[in-house]
Amino acid sequence: MISVLIIDDDAATRARLREQLEARGDIRVVAEAEDPIVARRLLDRVTPDVITLDLLMPRMDGLTFLEKLMAGRPMPVVVVSTVTQEDAPACFDALALGAVGVVGKVTLPHPQLWARFGGELRHYVRAAAMSAMGQLGRRGAGTLLTPVGERACLRPVMIGASTGGTEALAAILSRLPEASPPIAIVQHMPPGFTASFAARLDEHSALRVKEAADGDRLESGVVLLAPGHAHLEVVGSAIHPSVALKETPRVNLHRPAVDRLFNTAAQVFGAASVGILLTGMGDDGARGLAAMHAAGATTIGQDEASCVVYGMPAAAAALGACSTVVGLETVPEMLLQAAAGRPVAAGIG
């Protein structure tokens, strides 16, 4: 049983959150607080496994509370807040401070919307309960790496991530040089987030990072991030590859799904690509990475020690889908080596 403390200033929202959290019987709300001041007093009496946190509240905003919590008493936090382009910077700041994930709050009394929201909320709370607290929060920027191989000959790289992936991706892309291979990314994220996330990655990277649009070319030095409302697929030929957006049903409960990206990459590129599966709960991407591996591509899994949640890469490793398994700090260098067609060491790195 996972115990949860809800922090939200709206009583009706707290009641709906409680209803959704307790709907499957494996999560129990042990306390509620209308603001962080009340929450701090409650934490003297209860020790929840997970906190759900609104960001806009009276007396103390959620970010200030989160910063104080992580400095003095770190515990898993899932942000439950409105998700718009204006709200996105604060949500990314929360992830950088150590929040496990962000779930977009539902504001309309529509049963289907609340049912989907409840599924996402429970997913993130379960992931938070499993998370490795030592891997959450800001990661120091590493040294910019030197380009490897001829730019025109670099193999495209497909990356999949979920819980903990926002900071992992930032750590990887910040170390890659401008002369890097084409990169396509699926990060599980609400639709209102992806454009802002791409802009934030672009600001802190030598690469051009953008939210993918239908028909975008896969080009050296460019990173395409799947939008939160559509699957990202590789189309065309290995010589002239591009991407397509498909608003088709969810796969593995997700849209975009990592499996859709990886499976199409295996079909288009065969052995001439690189697949990387990062931290995340569940098994999305595992079968797709296995398809890339079977096609002869180099496939890399993030190791357990550096994952916030060792779920997706663990599922891939169990299928024998990883050419190698390495720590997050090793991924950028390994990515460049593999994209240049150079062999990578097999096994655990």
Fold and architecture overview:
Helix 3 (62-72) packs parallel to helix 4 (88-97) and helix 9 (286-294) crosses helix 10. The protein is built from eleven helices and 15 strands. The longest helix is centred in the middle third of the chain and has 20 residues, at 111-130. It has two domains: 2-135, Response regulator (Rossmann fold), CATH 3.40.50; 151-348, Methylesterase CheB, C-terminal domain (Rossmann fold), CATH 3.40.50. The mean pLDDT is 93. It has an eight-stranded parallel beta sheet, with helices on both faces. A five-stranded parallel beta sheet has the order 2-1-3-4-5, sandwiched between helices. A two-stranded antiparallel ribbon has the order 10-11. The protein has helices at 11-21, 36-42, 62-72, 88-97, 111-130, 165-173, 194-203, 258-269, 286-294, 312-318, 331-339, and strands at residues 2-7, 27-33, 50-53, 77-81, 101-104, 157-161, 183-187, 208-211, 222-225, 231-236, 241-246, 274-277, 298-302, 324-326, 347-348. It starts with a strand and ends with a strand. Helix 4 (88-97) links the parallel strand 4 (77-81) and strand 5. By secondary structure, it is an alpha/beta fold.
List the helices and strands and how they pair.
Elements: E1 2-7, H1 11-21, E2 27-33, H2 36-42, E3 50-53, H3 62-72, E4 77-81, H4 88-97, E5 101-104, H5 111-130, E6 157-161, H6 165-173, E7 183-187, H7 194-203, E8 208-211, E9 222-225, E10 231-236, E11 241-246, H8 258-269, E12 274-277, H9 286-294, E13 298-302, H10 312-318, E14 324-326, H11 331-339, E15 347-348
Parallel strand pairs: 1-2, 1-3, 3-4, 4-5, 6-7, 6-12, 7-9, 8-9, 12-13, 13-14, 14-15
Antiparallel strand pairs: 10-11
